[in-house]
């Protein structure tokens, strides 16, 4: 039996080519993901252990939330002092203590433009802690110049220096929280920090300067302790722990630290790997259709052969086994090849992602046995699973078929059961999704129901696809016949001939397109909703803000800028109203009116004052409050929240400027997490809006952290990520579509092979080679369009039905059909049809007419 | 070259198809096989001609070459006034579509099309509207009236072959080539098909050339040409099954003596 299976594989290698390719690509995706995940995790672990090299104990400051609020002075306080550092330094076994201060600083580049201000948390700042022995900081090897040693000196990571265009000796402009500062660049250093490689920046100050900027004199965020050889890390950690104050500091051994980091890295990369594996799984699922199709066709072609084997004594079980062995061999060969391609993918992925700014560390490829085994198991498993049904079909071929001399197609099996079951499953799917459409809570359970409904619906439609193929393909045929005459008519008839095969081929394409369309509709709708919501009700021309908080003194300067008509400063604080969490915005109601259009359904902003607030309709509904109610509320963060009695004096429609609730500036400011403005909205005098942003920047010391955004920029900032996300997902789903294309090629090639005699006959009675090519091409296009129409329809329906789940968290959400994209998907399907037909059509056209007519 | 028998039908002076010194060689070097060796033969318009010969004699090759299905090595083949040897694939296809009808031994029909669609297929391909009246005449003649909407799988072998004959006749081609049209049929169905073919010649003025190895089938023709080893060896006018058998016997005897 093994020999028969082997012979079969080799005899049909041309016909198995597309199937092999499909399995191969799926496995390549899986193995590429696994190997890439392992490699990245290892590289991160290496980088982290490089960072931790020589660290025996790390003492970190613990921040009690709200702690710094009790201080009147600016800046944070920590329990790590120079005295503590000295005490630790005096312990036996301690080689050195490296005290560090951590903060953030955003640069203006040499031309004055802020560098990476949107992601300012990636803009690191720390102290250059020169070692007493050699005057160097071992964490940051100097690449040029020297380390900063005075208050007016600064060093940059060489990457940061390159990006900002500064050279040694230049005056560097930057900001840490508000106003712009200037210092002289004295050196550049190299760093392994992934955040810097991912597009962030790194600024180094001398220790006293860093302390002044981010902490207080003589205080640190972390003490890195290295030990002399032969010292036990755990003992040293315990000794240090004894020196620490009861609260506010924590000592961790280097080994523990390495372990923690490794665990975090593993978790982070696992999340990435799992996401990629989902897409790989979809690609493999699509592959199942192609494999099943191929084996069905091979078995149909071989039915006499199988019957003969049965006649000479092979049992059904042996027939099944023979087919499965064939599938195993195919799966194995394809998986090994796929694994090799996967290694290539894994190698190419890092430079590709880094080009996009992912900042992954270098490291050699890590190929684990697990990755290899999983790839093989998945590849072979999927192939055997997909071949199992056709194998059982083969076993049912009666031995007597070997004796039949009439070359007749086996009678089409009844599809009543399949259609009935498919109809029922589709019905359930549609009902679930219609129910989802009525849900609006948007909690996780509802999303699970939506996912479940979508999957059920997809499975139902896959089952129903053969039934649906007749009306839809016939409709397409009406057009092709009119446009292409006999070729179109024949193409349609060919596509209709084997509904199962056409359906399976189209389903493979449908799956990818359903997902792509669904995400596209949801993504576009979300994008539109955000765009609409971002500036809805906002009449201001500019929004002035600093992510870390806009200093009130700076903020107050805005109204004096020439050309500015009105301003409104906003401050925000957490609010707990009857157990519902929201944000309360503090603003002067009179000023607010000039920059935002707020519609009050009851009450008015004029009534807002001490103890009197207005709330949004949504919050009113959630908290069960209405105009005139008085309620005990909590204002402020967790630790320093204060209970207050608030009277609701107004209810307004949702507005982005004042999310949740509105109070006065004075009322909210004390409960804000920092004593700064959240933002200042600016309305320009008429005709003065253009270019006003530069004037505002100038008036506010042009701090690199300062963001002066136009309405377009506000929109862009909020909605910009969605397009990128969609493009990434299209890319990941592209593999599924590619495999589906292979399926189309496969089906067409098999069809051409099966219909050799027909093609010969058609050539004899008057179709020329061009006609034959066109006939095959049209069949391909019809199949692809069938899959596309199903996929686009299904994807749109699912996105529409799930729309309200998003609406719950995004009030302006409405299902918007991205017509341009949908048309593009349809055209892509058309193009896929044409492309997939190239090779099969050429084969068909090249068939020798006389040999074809006489072929058996 | 043409010795037209006075016995049957009107005299035609123009051949519907004609081969002159037609040769067909397959392969090269050691595998070189001469299938046709300078055959010159004409098929008169409005006549039913049978080509006979033992297997490997080149009778099918002659038909393929003259019908524009296969390329000619040397010599010439004409259908009406058209010289086939100079035509490219596209022109040959057009010629077959417009001027030639075919009936093959088996597998004449497309399984996806109904009987009527199969009959009108050459015209559909040519984007020509079928002549309704003529179509009815043909359908009546071959007795398919009630079965036009059936698909081939629902028809018997004989009925399928009748559809093939109807298809060949429907576009009123210059000439119909039939390759062993009764080879797969029982004798009754075979007799019917042969009857239709000869009726089409006598009543509709169609020109038919049929390749066969069956003397009984050949007897339906007006004229039988005999081929052996790629050469034209003999011909017989107004054949009967007996006279054809006699001639065949002669060949065999001659073969044995040489």
UniProtKB/TrEMBL annotation, chain A:
It is a multi-pass membrane protein. GO terms for cellular component: plasma membrane. One of its GO terms (molecular function) is transmembrane transporter activity. It is found in: Cell membrane. The chain crosses the membrane at residues 275-299, 319-345, 365-389, 420-437, 449-468, 503-522, 728-753, 781-802, 822-841. Residues 278-399, 732-848 form the ABC3 transporter permease C-terminal domain. Residues 17-242, 502-689 form the MacB-like periplasmic core domain. The keyword Iron-sulfur does not apply. Pfam families: FtsX, MacB_PCD. Keywords: Cell membrane, Membrane, Transmembrane, Transmembrane helix. Belongs to the ABC-4 integral membrane protein family. This is FtsX-like permease family protein. It comes from Streptomyces sedi.
Automatic annotation (TrEMBL), chain B:
It comes from Streptomyces sedi. GO terms for molecular function: ATP binding; ATP hydrolysis activity; transmembrane transporter activity. The keyword Ribosomal protein does not apply. The keyword Glycosyltransferase does not apply. Residues 20-254 form the ABC transporter domain. Keywords: ATP-binding, Nucleotide-binding, Transport. CDD domains: ABC_MJ0796_LolCDE_FtsE. It comes from the Bacteria. Pfam families: ABC_tran (PF00005). GO terms for cellular component: membrane protein complex; plasma membrane. This is ABC transporter ATP-binding protein.
């Amino acid at each position: 039996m093994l020999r028969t299976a082997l012979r079969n594989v080799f005899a049909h290698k041309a016909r198995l080519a597309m199937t092999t390719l499909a399995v191969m690509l799926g496995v390549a995706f899986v193995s590429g993901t696994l190997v890439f995940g392992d490699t990245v995790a290892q590289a991160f672990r290496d980088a982290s252990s490089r960072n931790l090299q020589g660290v025996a104990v790390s003492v970190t400051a613990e921040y009690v939330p709200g702690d710094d609020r009790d201080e009147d002075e600016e800046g944070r306080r920590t329990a790590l002092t120079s005295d503590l550092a000295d005490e630790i330094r005096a312990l036996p076994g301690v080689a050195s203590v490296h005290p560090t201060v951590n903060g953030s600083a955003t640069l203006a580049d040499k031309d004055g433009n802020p560098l990476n201000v949107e992601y300012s948390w990636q803009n690191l700042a720390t102290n250059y802690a020169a070692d007493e022995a050699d005057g160097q900081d071992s964490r940051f090897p100097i690449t040029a110049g020297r380390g900063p040693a005075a208050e007016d000196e600064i060093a940059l990571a060489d990457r940061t220096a390159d990006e900002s265009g500064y050279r040694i000796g230049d005056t560097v402009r930057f900001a840490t929280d508000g106003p712009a500062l200037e210092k002289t660049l004295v050196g550049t250093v190299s760093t392994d920090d992934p955040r810097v490689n991912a597009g962030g920046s790194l600024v180094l100050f001398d220790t006293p300067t860093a302390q002044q900027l981010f902490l207080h004199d003589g205080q640190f965020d972390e003490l890195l302790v290295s030990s002399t050889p032969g010292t036990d890390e755990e003992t040293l950690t315990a000794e240090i722990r004894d020196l620490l104050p009861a609260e506010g500091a924590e000592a961790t051994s280097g080994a523990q630290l390495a372990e923690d980091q490794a665990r975090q890295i593993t978790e982070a990369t696992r999340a990435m790997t799992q996401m990629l594996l989902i897409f790989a799984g979809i690609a493999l699922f699509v592959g199942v259709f192609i494999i099943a199709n191929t084996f069905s066709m091979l078995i149909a072609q071989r039915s006499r052969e199988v019957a003969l084997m049965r006649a000479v004594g092979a049992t059904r079980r042996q027939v099944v086994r023979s087919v499965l062995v064939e599938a195993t061999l195919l799966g194995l060969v394809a998986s090994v090849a796929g694994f090799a391609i996967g290694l290539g993918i894994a190698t190419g992925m890092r430079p590709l992602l880094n080009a996009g700014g992912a900042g992954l560390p270098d490291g050699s490829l890590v190929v684990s046995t697990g990755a290899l085994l999983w790839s093989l198991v998945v590849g072979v498993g999927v192939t055997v699973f997909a071949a199992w049904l056709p194998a059982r079909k083969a076993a049912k071929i009666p031995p007597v078929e070997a004796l039949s001399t009439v070359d007749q197609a086996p009678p089409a099996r009844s599809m009543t059961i399949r259609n009935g079951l498919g109809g029922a499953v589709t019905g359930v799917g549609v009902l679930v999704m219609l129910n989802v459409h009525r849900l609006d809570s948007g909690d996780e359970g509802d999303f699970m129901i939506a996912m479940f409904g979508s999957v059920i619906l997809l499975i139902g439609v896959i089952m129903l696809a053969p039934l649906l193929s007749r009306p839809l393909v016939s409709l397409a045929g009406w057009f092709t016949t009119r446009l292409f005459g006999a070729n179109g008519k024949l193409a349609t008839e060919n596509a209709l001939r084997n509904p199962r095969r056409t359906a399976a081929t189209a389903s493979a394409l449908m799956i990818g397109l359903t997902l792509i369309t669904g995400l596209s509709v949801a993504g576009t709708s979300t994008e539109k909703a955000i765009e609409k919501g971002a500036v809805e009700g906002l009449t201001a021309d500019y929004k002035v803000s600093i992510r870390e908080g806009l200093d009130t003194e700076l903020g107050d300067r805005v109204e004096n800028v020439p050309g500015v008509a009105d301003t409104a400063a906003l401050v925000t604080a957490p609010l707990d109203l009857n157990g519902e969490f929201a944000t309360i915005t503090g603003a002067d109601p009179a000023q607010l009116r000039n920059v935002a259009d707020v519609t009050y359904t009851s009450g008015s902003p004029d009534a807002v004052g001490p103890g009197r607030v207005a709330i949004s309709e949504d919050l009113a509904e959630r908290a069960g409050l209405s105009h005139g109610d008085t309620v005990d509320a909590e204002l402020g963060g967790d630790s320093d929240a204060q209970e207050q009695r608030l009277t609701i004096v107004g209810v307004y429609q949702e507005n982005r400027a004042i999310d949740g609730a509105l109070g006065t500036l004075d009322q909210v400011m004390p409960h804000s997490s920092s004593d700064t403005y959240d933002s200042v909205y600016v309305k320009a005098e008429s005709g003065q809006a253009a270019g006003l942003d530069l004037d505002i920047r100038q008036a506010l010391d042009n701090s690199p952290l300062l963001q002066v955004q136009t309405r377009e920029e506000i929109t862009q900032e909020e909605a910009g990520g969605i397009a990128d996300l969609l493009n990434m997902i299209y890319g990941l789903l592209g593999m599924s579509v590619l495999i589906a294309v292979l399926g189309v090629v496969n089906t067409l090639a098999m069809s051409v092979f099966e219909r050799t005699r027909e093609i010969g006959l058609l050539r004899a009675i008057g179709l020329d080679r061009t006609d034959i090519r066109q006939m095959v091409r049209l069949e391909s296009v019809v199949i692809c369009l069938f899959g596309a129409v199903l996929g686009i329809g299904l994807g749109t329906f699912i996105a529409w039905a799930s729309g309200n789940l998003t609406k719950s968290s995004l009030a302006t959400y409405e299902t918007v059909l991205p017509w341009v994209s949908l048309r593009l998907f349809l055209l892509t399907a058309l193009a896929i049809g044409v492309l997939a037909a190239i090779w099969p059509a050429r084969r068909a056209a090249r068939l020798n007419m006389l040999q074809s007519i006489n072929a058996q | 070259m043409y010795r037209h028998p006075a016995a049957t039908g009107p005299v035609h002076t123009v051949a519907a198809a004609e081969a002159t010194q037609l040769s067909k060689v397959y392969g090269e070097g050691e595998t070189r096989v001469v299938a046709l060796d300078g055959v010159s033969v004409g098929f008169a318009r409005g006549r039913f001609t049978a080509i006979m010969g033992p297997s490997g004699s080149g009778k099918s090759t002659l038909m393929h070459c003259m019908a524009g299905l296969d390329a000619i090595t040397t010599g010439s083949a004409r259908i009406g006034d058209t010289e086939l040897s100079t035509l490219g694939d596209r022109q040959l296809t057009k010629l077959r579509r417009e001027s030639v009808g075919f009936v093959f031994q088996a597998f004449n029909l497309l399984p996806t099309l109904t009987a009527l669609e199969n009959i009108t297929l050459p015209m559909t391909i040519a984007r020509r509207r079928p002549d309704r009246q003529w179509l009815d005449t043909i359908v009546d003649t071959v007795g398919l009236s009630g079965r036009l909407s059936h698909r081939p799988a629902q028809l018997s072998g004989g009925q399928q072959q009748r559809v093939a004959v109807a298809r060949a006749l429907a576009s009123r081609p210059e000439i119909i080539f039939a390759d062993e049209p009764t080879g797969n049929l029982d004798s009754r169905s075979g007799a019917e098909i042969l009857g239709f073919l000869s009726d089409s010649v006598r009543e509709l003025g169609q020109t038919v050339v049929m390749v066969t190895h069956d003397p009984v089938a050949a007897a339906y023709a007006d004229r039988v040409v005999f081929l052996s080893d790629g050469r034209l060896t003999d011909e017989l006018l107004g054949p009967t099954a007996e006279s054809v058998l006699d001639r065949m016997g002669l060949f065999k005897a001659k073969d044995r003596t040489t």
